[in-house]
From TrEMBL:
<dbReference type="InterPro" id="IPR029062">
    <property type="entry name" value="Class_I_gatase-like"/>
</dbReference>
<feature type="binding site">
    <location>
        <position position="105"/>
    </location>
    <ligand>
        <name>substrate</name>
    </ligand>
</feature>
<feature type="domain" description="Glycoside hydrolase family 42 N-terminal">
    <location>
        <begin position="8"/>
        <end position="392"/>
    </location>
</feature>
<feature type="binding site">
    <location>
        <position position="323"/>
    </location>
    <ligand>
        <name>substrate</name>
    </ligand>
</feature>
<dbReference type="GO" id="GO:0046872">
    <property type="term" value="F:metal ion binding"/>
</dbReference>
<dbReference type="InterPro" id="IPR003476">
    <property type="entry name" value="Glyco_hydro_42"/>
</dbReference>
<dbReference type="GO" id="GO:0004565">
    <property type="term" value="F:beta-galactosidase activity"/>
</dbReference>
<comment type="similarity">
    <text>Belongs to the glycosyl hydrolase 42 family.</text>
</comment>
<dbReference type="InterPro" id="IPR017853">
    <property type="entry name" value="GH"/>
</dbReference>
<dbReference type="InterPro" id="IPR013738">
    <property type="entry name" value="Beta_galactosidase_Trimer"/>
</dbReference>
<feature type="binding site">
    <location>
        <position position="109"/>
    </location>
    <ligand>
        <name>Zn(2+)</name>
    </ligand>
</feature>
<protein>
    <recommendedName>
        <fullName>Beta-galactosidase</fullName>
        <ecNumber>3.2.1.23</ecNumber>
    </recommendedName>
</protein>
<feature type="active site" description="Nucleophile">
    <location>
        <position position="315"/>
    </location>
</feature>
<dbReference type="Pfam" id="PF02449">
    <property type="entry name" value="Glyco_hydro_42"/>
</dbReference>
<dbReference type="GO" id="GO:0009341">
    <property type="term" value="C:beta-galactosidase complex"/>
</dbReference>
<keyword id="KW-0479">Metal-binding</keyword>
<dbReference type="InterPro" id="IPR013529">
    <property type="entry name" value="Glyco_hydro_42_N"/>
</dbReference>
Amino acid sequence: MKPALGVCYYPEHWPEEIWAEDAARMVEAGLTWVRIGEFAWSRLEAQPGQFTFDWLDRAIETLGTAGLKVVLGTPTATPPRWMVEKHPDMLAVDAEGRPRKFGSRRHYCFSHLGYREESVRIARILGERYGRNPHVQAWQIDNEYACHDTTVSYSAAAIAGFRNWLAQKYQSPDALNRAWGNVFWSMEYADFSEIDPPALTVTEPNPSHVMDWRRYSSDQVVAYNRVQAQALRPLTDAPLIHNYMGRVLEFDHFDTGADLDIASWDSYPIGFLSDRLEDTAEHKRRFLRQGDPDMQAFHHDLYRAVGRGRWWVMEQQPGPVNWAPHNPAPLPGMARLWAWEAIAHGAEAVCYFRWRQAPFAQEQMHAGLLRPDSAPAPALAEAAQVAREIEEMPDVTPAQARVAILFDYPSSWAWETQPQGADFDYFRLVTEVYRGLRRLGVNVDILPLAGADLSAYKLVLGPGLFTLPDALRAALATHSGLAILGPRTGTRTPNFAIPVPLPPALPGLDTTIALTESLPNGAEEPLEAGGCIGRWLERLEGSAEVVERTTAGQPVLVRSGGLHYLAGWPDPEAMVRILRSACAEAGVATTDLPDGLRIRDTATHRFYINYAPEPLNHDGVTVPAAGVTWTPFR
Ligand code: GAL
């Protein structure tokens, strides 16, 4: 497959006279995709039912005849002001009961059925007009679900919807009371209409209540996405895409992904390093202008799974962004490196955000490929270089990974609901396992729990899984490779209770979690073989073979055959050691990479990706600072 580059463009922001020149410059830079329209509702329908399409017709025509393929967005992330007049109760409401008002974007509640219908209406109207337009070769539905903390809403529509959802799930208040354990603290309900969202309670609400609320909220995103997809399906053969975000876990992306053809995500490496990553000050300084070396790759692999193999980067950071606490500029080379890294992970397309920096409104400090005066910004030349390199490159064919990490959105909601240790974070746990594998140069696939086919994998990791579905238990029992589950895996029932027999109750593995501790910083337990366990430590009982123990003799990693249970959260040293020896036993080759260097194998090439601010050597290959290079497999 030949990957392609693209850019996000807002014709409605610029005088029509410059569209043709913009399009010509995009083509000249080697871009093939252009995403438009996702925020243009007020220009398409200035008043209810009063449509103005001629400008969009001409924009699509101009871009298309220049040779670009258009991704057309449904504009539903930005309902115009009149919409809020028409449906005053469509606004999302925060946990304190305050409406989240008009004046930016994403000001809607997923549960509001009136707004859902309006979204279907505009999607259908756009589909009818442009669904067979030859220039429109892909669709983006909405924009970044959940961004700005918009999944969970406490609106009247959400409360009514939740009660309904509960009534369907449990059928009777008694069944719900039993499932949630509402006898505890006299929380029993006599009618579904008595149940509120779990907010503003005096002390913590019942975790089963919170978990169902989170499931309900996720289901609304899925339903909202589905109705737009259903509206567009009969009107177009072009693929339907959504652009997800980084470290957004509030809804189940595998569920939305099932209704779409391609997953895409918006990659802002430097913004993420500053804004949504826990790490040492030293690490953040070292990678200040490059981003974390594993954050992007993790999301590439995650969204490849969400897209069932088909995925894009819909927005790629080109320079400083405007939204992180601090917004440094990328090192020269990073706009090229990020694109190649995505391609090496199988991206079909990488689109830079945005074409020209907007001198007005909220994002005026956000770089584009062009400056506000239309002069090239530094990333333009790098994008053009990637485009030329793609032309010279044979097709990039993905290689089958031999190591997989099981990933589960509800597990994130569960441990947020009941962290038990203040710093127990599911995303962090999973990405630390991922980082350990990447430091060893290993290609990783991410797998959802539902229908996970383990047969291709020599090593499967399942950290922090809230429940362990029966089908997965059965798959693990017959899996011929190695598997390491835990910590905390399978430690709750779907209703959020501790199962008896006690967890992890793994097939053929005689080990039981007898007691669980969470540990503050500084209270780590050293391991006999080096490194330590911190944050989380489960005390195991049983006759399973002990692989790793603390210096005090407490088992931490046990096994029976290939099936392992890990009873704590290893520090980076212990993590890498455990993973290295598991890979060695499983027959997965590893190599120890210098700090900041990562490798990624495709079917034909090994890519060396250097996030470090200095050149690094590995395997006799020298990779420039902020550089990427590749060698064909002989
Ligand atoms: C994304 C969003 C874009 C733009 C960009 C700025 O989250 O989809 O519309 O706001 O961030 O970095």
